[in-house]
Amino acid sequence: MSRPVLEVADIFRDHGAAWRRANVGHVSLDQLKVMSAIERCRTAALGGHVARCEGCAHTVIAFNSCRNRHCPKCQGTAAKQWLAAREADLLPVGYFHVVFTLPAAIADIAYQNKAVVYDILFTASAETMATIAADPKHLGARIGITSVLHTWGSALTQNPHSRYRALSSP
């Protein structure tokens, strides 16, 4: 398998130190440990081993992995297998993907008051989904919901939002 052009580790190595300085006090020790593990994964910092062909003396150096459960290099295959297993568990019904995004002004407040604001976000969005789905004009059903909190957007800027996956009955 070929290496992607850009990896999370590359971004962390290039910009992680500046980001950590800019976010002092807002990043947990566990988050810092994950960033460090990803930055060091499969580099000389974690050591490695040498494999040499006895026939042609071709040599390959393989650096050790961090084995962190959040590392995309270490857990990429496991994540794909997990996703395939979850997809096999899905019911044969329609699913809806709904995103609730906090306005920028509230997102700034959430950055300082995560537990309170995110609790409000989850409560309000779950109640909204249940109310709309129960309305006979829409679905007229009681729905099941899986919700995930995302605090960063695809551009790696703060963008708190919750993603819901709701299933509907036929």
Q: Keyphrases for this structure?
A:
2 domains; 3-stranded antiparallel beta sheet; alpha+beta; flat
Characterize the structure shown.
With 170 residues, the protein is an alpha+beta fold. The longest helix has 21 residues, at 114-134. It is flat, with a radius of gyration of 22 Å. It folds into two domains: 8-87, no CATH class; 90-167. The two termini are 42 Å apart. 9% of the residues are buried. It has helices at 8-22, 29-40, 72-89, 104-112, 114-134, and strands at 48-52, 59-63, 95-101, 144-152, 158-167. A three-stranded antiparallel β-sheet has the order 3-5-4. A two-stranded antiparallel ribbon has the order 1-2. The chain contains five helices and five strands. The mean pLDDT is 85.
